[in-house]
Design a protein that fits this description.
By secondary structure, the protein is an all-alpha fold. Helices cover 58% and strands 2% of the residues. The chain has 17 helices and two strands. The protein has a two-stranded antiparallel ribbon with strand order 1-2. The longest helix is centred in the C-terminal third of the chain and has 25 residues. Keywords: Nucleus. One of its GO terms (molecular function) is DNA-binding transcription factor activity, RNA polymerase II-specific. This is Zn(2)-C6 fungal-type domain-containing protein.
Length: 410
Amino acid sequence: MVGVAGRSKACLDCKRRRVKCDLTEPRCLRCSRAKIHCQGYKLETVWVNRTLEQPGLTAAAAIAGAARLPQRPGQRRLHLLNQLKLECASPVRDPLNFRCRALQVLDGIYTPYLSLEGAYPSAVSWLEAIGEMKEGCDALDQSLLAFCAIQIRVVGENSISYDDTVQLYNHALRNVIEDLARGKGAREETLAAIIALSTCELFLFVKDQSLSIHAHGISEILRHRDVMQPSRYWDRLVVRMCLICIVGGLTHGRALALAPGEWYALLGPAPTDSFAHLLKVAVEIPAILEKAESLVEKRYPESLTARCTDLLTRKFYELKEWRAQKASPYWVVPSTLENPADEKYNDKLFPFALKFHSIATAVEWIFCSTIMLRTVDAALTAGSVGLSSPNNGYFTSTRTFDRRISTTKT
């Protein structure tokens, strides 16, 4: 029955609105499409903490106090985070409920409120997959808790310090190491925990090398893991793992630990306009960059560097073709940012800004454009090696590449 308390299996918001719920976990799609912050399917846990200051606190008083809490988004996130900390300290908890509530903390600050952007995995779909996992895993829950705390701090919440986030991260890392030592590395929950920790490091240790360590660890686990029967959320996890490895490879200019053919098999078939297809195009680029940089350092003959430049050029146009399939992902609006460099001038350095249709669209488009810029830079650098005169044959090749790139619409 629709909206009847005690009988309906609908989410809390659909019960309140007395509408039919589609029962999608971890969050109702009907609420997401209506741009409502779905509260999930279970009542929020209220902890009764009897202290020396409140020795006679009752459950009824705790529930009444929770109902009077301010509902500002920032305060609500902190309240949820504190509850998650208490649940993590408890040996008994509902894993699915814990992870769904962690997603509520991340809604609007890391993930868009609209939970599903399309039928195929995006760069943030790994969180939706974690929200569907029902098996208990302390490493995953601790990693998710650390990630929530880091995201709250990133948006400017001063009540969480950098040391607090590092402490939560280190505690989660110890749990992951213990699971790996017990031979649980092939579990999807353990892989999800590594994904969460790897994403933590993008915000926590900007100049650290630990992302590459996690990327190598992911590759080694995948190399020995049997994926003949993947779960319903495996495709979303593997997209994120591939993304982490590509980012590490592009950052350091090193080939990926897994060969491109192995990543193709893991990613599986995907439409040409999907994010997974973009990863298939990009997965070869780190190896080409490593080869090109090696040739530049050792000043090899032009015939060898020309081969790398041709490969980079081909990859550039493959990326450009993928990006062209995204019909008008953004529109141009006047910039409202104040740049200190513009104070002495009448005209702004960046007078316009790009407004994207969604966070997922922006992430994919900017990621693709960044790789394109990286390939252009590497190709021009490799092409300039050994230049002695304008009649140099390779100079002509580089100049042609430069002209072709400059005439490309971005």
